Amino acid sequence: MLKYILFLLLGSTIVLNAQDSLVVKLSGKSDDNQLMLYKVKGGQQEYVANAKSDTNNFKFQFPTKSAPGIYRLFFDIQNNGFIELLYNNESISVTFDPLNIDTSAKFLVSKENQIYEAYIQLSLRRQSTIDSLQMVYFSTEKRELIKVKYAKVVIELKQIQHSFEEMSKGLMAHEFITSNRNYNADEIWTTPDLYLESTQSHFFDALDFGNPILRNSSRILDKVVEYVFYLNKSEDMEVYLASKQQAVNDVMLKVGNIYDVKREILSSLLYALADQQEIEMVDFIITQHYGKLPKELQSEQFLTEIDRIISTAIGREAPEISWDENGEEKKLSDMKGLNEVIIIVFWSTSCSHCLNDIPTLYDFTKDYDGLQIVAIALEEEREDFDKLTKEMPQWIHVYGANKWTNKIAKNYDVNGTPSYFVLDKDLKIIAKPEVLEDLQALFDQN
């Protein structure tokens, strides 16, 4: 018996000290020859390693003392294509088709992932059926039949949930399985309002915001994003805004005094809302929640970045632009009230699309009264700029040195040319057409 126990202890030591591996085989047709592995930490991702292969067979070595948790294996960084893995001091072997991950992923090695993947497949199928039956109930005449089917599937899901919670005890997967437990009433809800009220009130029942394993994964943020962005919908924008604000209030109340989790959630929400140019929601979160965090958890640098992202949102006053004109400094702010409309266009003499659209725009706008164009050319060299701008004398031309690192381009968050910003007489941004045709359409409407 002692020998057996010693063997187990030695075996455990070997597993803990050995460098665990991740073996990946891509099935189907795939052009991916490089995979990248990242560790998920709340709303952040930390680079771990990469692997290359011309045969669709890849192998990673987890660095010694790699932290257990959720890892993301990216096969298509550009399009955010990845598969998530549970790592808990064991080697992993997985095969999947990048074009069909949901049904093709199969874990050949790793008890954690095998149990969790089986749970996800079974539970999601039942939950999807429950949700569908509930929706059908509101619009069908066969309500008694739907009631019976609903009750049956709810029992099945409860049995699946209980079985996997028992099966996963002692594993990291247990934390994710239990936190995924959904509340489903034993009997079907008779009205949409009752159903929505129940969903909202029980949404976070199984989620422990203080759980260290969940905090080092994307689980908490995923649930919060679903609650704030997708559970509150309305065609009335005022109602929609109010419901979304209340959703944020609800989340903060649930989190309580776990301030670092609050900061993580609020920071992620602010990034998402700023990216969507939802100014009112950004201002609400900053004034009502982020600004009330302990001072040591607030970041002026972060708030400056958020302000930069939303600085060119529709409704905001356009960021200042200054340029030299015959030795005299000129500013965009000096033009306030002088023109009915101002168009700021970013272009480049090295952009073939620009060389087609910019002359067309010049011809299109040159006869409009009360209109001024400020054209910022993002360049590495000045020669072509000086030559081409002479052909458009009615415009204000600004030489944007250093192209993409140019200060004006960065302030306007310009990542491609041509880019258009339409301002009113008070220099407020009223439109950001993506293509020339959309810009022309604005003037055709008027």
What does this structure look like?
With 446 residues, the protein is of the alpha+beta class. The chain has 4 domains: 20-108, Carboxypeptidase-like, regulatory domain (Immunoglobulin-like, Sandwich); 110-190, no CATH class; 204-310, no CATH class; 322-445, Glutaredoxin (3-Layer(aba) Sandwich), CATH 3.40.30. The protein contains 16 helices and 15 strands. The protein has helices spanning 2-17, 101-104, 111-137, 143-167, 173-179, 192-202, 212-215, 219-230, 237-255, 259-275, 279-288, 300-310, 352-365, 383-389, 407-411, 436-445, and strands at residues 21-26, 34-41, 44-52, 57-61, 69-76, 81-87, 92-96, 106-109, 322-325, 328-331, 341-347, 371-379, 396-401, 419-424, 429-431. A 5-stranded mixed β-sheet has the order 13-12-11-14-15. A 4-stranded mixed β-sheet has the order 4-1-7-8. Strand 9 and strand 10 form a beta hairpin. It is globular, with a radius of gyration of 28 Å. The termini are far apart.
Describe the structure in brief.
The protein is 45% helix and 20% strand. It has 16 helices and 15 strands.
Q: What keywords describe this structure?
A:
single chain; 446 residues; alpha+beta; Immunoglobulin-like; 4 domains; five-stranded mixed β-sheet; 20% strand; disordered N terminus
How do the strands and helices of this protein lay out in sequence?
Elements: H1 2-17, E1 21-26, E2 34-41, E3 44-52, E4 57-61, E5 69-76, E6 81-87, E7 92-96, H2 101-104, E8 106-109, H3 111-137, H4 143-167, H5 173-179, H6 192-202, H7 212-215, H8 219-230, H9 237-255, H10 259-275, H11 279-288, H12 300-310, E9 322-325, E10 328-331, E11 341-347, H13 352-365, E12 371-379, H14 383-389, E13 396-401, H15 407-411, E14 419-424, E15 429-431, H16 436-445
Parallel strand pairs: 1-7, 11-12, 12-13
Antiparallel strand pairs: 1-4, 2-3, 2-5, 5-6, 7-8, 9-10, 11-14, 14-15
